[in-house]
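Exercise 3.2. Students should predict the tertiary structure of the chain below and write it as structure tokens, then compare their answer with the key that follows.

Predict this chain's 3D structure.
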Amino acid sequence: MVDGHEKTVTGRSADPRTEIPCIVVDLDGTLLRANSLRLFIRFMARKFAREGRVVPLVRILWLLAARRARLIPHVGMKYPIHRLAAATVGEDELEEFAGSLRGYVCAPLLDELSRLKGEGWRVMLATAAPSLYVPQLAGHLGIDEWVATPLTDTPASYTETRGERKLELALGRAAAKGWRIRAVATDHEDDLPVLRLDGVRRLLVNSTDRLSVMMVGLGLAFEKIDCR
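Answer key:
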């Protein structure tokens, strides 16, 4: 809060007249009608089973079971899986996986992105998903830029690209490209920091009732896209 008012973050850079408009798009539940990490874990498990690699397969199954039993946090499951994937999944396999995600794409949203690109806009994918397969997916879908969760050397430094961190990275990338964030598409309240950018168009895709109520409470106008 600032002086009793909600603080609004601006997405503008030095000279808006020379900037290219950009839309920031969430991945899981927004551009995809699915969770890409869950699909990737299944992809890895099938790969290890097919190759007869018992140790990594058991490792994945243990991590999933531990997470389901709440013995470890989400990041405690995600980091070792991200690290294992980086060491065992090849480029061709990442391309194969990224291609398989096309079947989960939200068609109405993709159509809107294509329309905006036709008007000169740029599309930035901003996601908490592991950075491992995001470049390949961006290539398949014609996305101009992306930010995702990078793999780090230690679990302690592993920070997901969500919330304020996503806002920071998206603004930084847009500024570096000479873009101005003019629209945001998401399904989740984690993206409220990005949704609160000043003067943006807000597209809620299959959004939760909780997010809609929060948006109304904050006085933020929005549109809805249904991909179910």
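Discussion points: Residues 1-14 have pLDDT under 50 and may be disordered. The beta strands are 20-25, 122-130, 145-149, 179-186, 201-205, 223-225.
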